[in-house]
Amino acid sequence: MFDWNGKGLSLGNLKVKAPIVQGGMGVGVSGFRLASAVANEGGVGVISAVGLGFMGRSLTDESLKELSERTGETMNITMLRQEIRKAKALTKGVLGVNIMVAISEFAETAKAAVEEGIDIIFAGAGLPLNLPASLGEGSKTKLVPIVSSAKAAKLIARRWMNTYGYAPDGFVLEGPKAGGHLGFSKAQIDDPAFQLEQLIGPVAEEAGRIAQTAGKEIPVIAAGGIYTGEDIADMLGRGADGVQMATRFVATEECDADAAFKQAYVDCRPEDIGIIESPVGLPGRALINRFLQEAKEGRRRPKSCPRHCITTCGETEAPYCISSALINAFYGKLNSGFAFVGANGWRVDKILTVHQLFEELAEGFARAVKAAESAAKGEAI
Known about the structure:
It is built from 13 helices and 13 strands. It has an eight-stranded parallel sheet with strand order 3-11-10-8-7-6-5-4. A three-stranded antiparallel sheet has the order 9-13-12, with no helix packed on it. Helix 1 runs parallel beside helix 3 (75-90), helix 3 (75-90) packs parallel to helix 4 (106-115) and helix 5 runs parallel beside helix 7 (196-214). The longest helix has 27 residues, at 354-380. Strand 1 and strand 2 form a beta hairpin. The protein has helices at residues 32-40, 62-71, 75-90, 106-115, 150-164, 186-189, 196-214, 229-237, 247-250, 259-267, 290-296, 322-330, 354-380; strands at residues 9-11, 14-16, 20-22, 44-48, 94-100, 120-124, 142-147, 171-174, 180-181, 220-223, 242-245, 273-277, 283-287. It folds into two domains: 4-257 and 349-380, Aldolase class I (TIM Barrel, Alpha-Beta Barrel), CATH 3.20.20; 263-345, no CATH class. The chain has 381 residues and is an alpha/beta fold.
């Protein structure tokens, strides 16, 4: 396994060989298969917690069936427990869960992930101001908010430390080139001042100040538009401690989504990627298809809200049910749904194994490190 020039990622006592976090992708796109494969390659494999109980899957773990009946937990939470247990059975590596703050069962979902012994909770699509409340006595789960600015990082840390005596274990800084829901206004998405390269410095400085007060290291993980090993080296050179990548992991054999979902990435062109107004109340980057065009024209409006799964969803005004759309896409029914994608999704041209992808990223990273060392020697001469 490539040693990444010693640039592994540390979150407290968790030591990750590769400075790579696989981004959480829902609904179901990053499940136990993908997460465990990434963890086995030395990265952080991440399960998306959103909407698992709506996917029509049956429980295979008898203890979970009994637990669901006994506790009255929703299927979403019981299915998350199953995903975590399946992933753990396939890897001894580091596993995380991504939880949207906007889901109606955010607190219960986080608590269940902690109870299942997940290594890390990543929380975004809102400010996870009360996330430390999910930790029980002796919990080892690390808590990592997803932010889009130093201001958000400062606000979250202050709330956690004042209310719970707990500082974040890291931050994911997600820039505007990411796929899915974005923490930026439409005007900011293409504004040079809000690009990831400009945000890393201020967020790293703020994380440093919080770390000094808290007495622990707080790494910053850069996300959004990172595609190659050279990109990873560039982000680390700018002050990030690691990177989060999602789009690249869709086009892998181990990705949990249907083959048609993955092929949509392979087939997409730059002009197929656009910004949409999500029913969640945030802009999002997606593959524009007939479904989204019909929704924009008002031809996909649901008769009623079937699930009440997102607290910020305008149920009466929503142009479509986003959970249904994403679940349909997961199963390859893209005429009845759509796929989120990062800004560089058009560069995907083939399906790889996770191992092959890590090899490709490692080779690009090594080239970048070697080029930087050669340049430094040239300057010294």
